[in-house]
Write a structure and sequence with these properties.
Elements lengths: L22 H14 L8 E2 L1 H8 L3 H13 L3 E3 L5 E3 L4 H24 L3 H17 L6 H18 L3 H9 L2 H9 L4 H20 L2 H12 L6 H7 L6
Antiparallel strand pairs: 1-3, 2-3
Helix pairs in contact: 1-3, 4-6, 4-8, 4-9, 4-10, 5-6, 5-9, 9-10
Length: 237
């Protein structure tokens, strides 16, 4: 895209953004969410003056938020000019996937060594919520958010929330590609079955089985990356 997209005046979750909490953090969270969800697709030009006006904030917290998103590799910030949503980079996708598999298999290994009933209860509650909306295409975004919540709950079970934040920060390109993948019945079932297998393996105390279940669950994430790049060439580097 070559021209700036208009940022809608009424954005979900942004009411009172300049009043409550840390303004820069809220701006970071909302803008990053919209980029990863492809509401702001690769190549979109963001004009900082328009963003500040639409969000009702000053340039200072907005600049900080954009710099943080740039550090995540999702923006190209041109000082005194414009900001462009970066295109999806396959190299960063495979790097993020490697890191995610390495960390998450270790997380489930440690959970299987000392299963936490509270953590597994949280994980199973998330699975039940996913099952309740699995057949509703209008709830796909909620289903995907619950998918992220499931993995975050496992990290939290070990007290490693900051590690999950690190994975999330480095997975922006991977996250965008995941949004592009078709979520048909087979894909939804793969996700749900994977979550159930992971929980069952952890509760059984079988470390190897838990690691294998997590690896199998994450295996399909990058398999169709080349196909998606061919299908959406304007979105990729």
């Amino acid at each position: 895209m070559s021209k700036a997209r208009e940022i809608p005046a009424s954005l979900p979750g942004t009411a009172g953004i300049a009043v409550h909490g840390n303004v820069a953090s809220q701006l970071y969270d909302d803008l990053r969410r919209r980029i990863v969800s492809l509401d702001l697709p690769p190549g979109t030009v963001l004009l900082r003056a328009e963003l500040a006006a639409e969000y009702g904030v000053s340039q200072t917290p907005l600049r900080e938020a954009l710099q943080r998103i740039e550090q995540d590799g999702l923006l190209h910030v041109h000082p005194q000019s414009k900001t462009v949503v970066s295109k999806i980079d396959l190299a960063q996708i495979f790097e993020a996937h490697f890191m995610r598999v390495a960390l998450e298999t270790e997380v489930v290994r440690q959970l299987a060594r000392q299963p936490s009933r509270a953590t597994m209860s949280d994980a199973m509650a998330i699975i039940r919520m996913q099952e309740a909306i699995a057949g509703d295409p209008d709830q796909l975004r909620v289903f995907q958010e619950l998918d992220d919540s499931f993995h975050r709950a496992l990290f939290a079970g070990l007290g490693h929330q900051r590690l999950h934040q690190l994975v999330n920060a480095r997975s922006g390109h991977l996250g965008r590609m995941r949004k592009m993948q078709p979520h048909d019945d087979a894909k939804i079932r793969h996700i749900l079955d994977g979550h159930k297998d992971i929980v069952a393996a952890i509760l059984s105390g079988d470390e190897d089985k838990a690691m294998a279940a997590m690896r199998a669950h994450l295996s399909q994430t990058v398999t169709n990356a080349p196909d998606l790049r061919a299908k959406y060439p304007d979105f990729f580097t």
